[in-house]
Amino acid sequence: MIRKHSATLHGHRTSFSLEDEFWDELKRIAGQRNLSIAGLIAEVDDDRASDSNLSSALRVYVLRWLKGQQSQAENAV
Question: What region holds the Ribbon-helix-helix domain (predicted)?
Fold first, then answer.
């Protein structure tokens, strides 16, 4: 299910829509990185291309993170 979320980034409220699975992964990643979820979202927002939307940027961030974790696990074997 896709849910609407909101966050304050640099003093401005913004909203984005994410599937529950992406939201759960974002929270897990934030915990692993010792960041607040708002801090992680702000980081992704700051790094995203100007022509991409925040929802898409968050999904791509999760995908890249998971692929990076998979690569690390494969290299450890």
Answer: 3-66
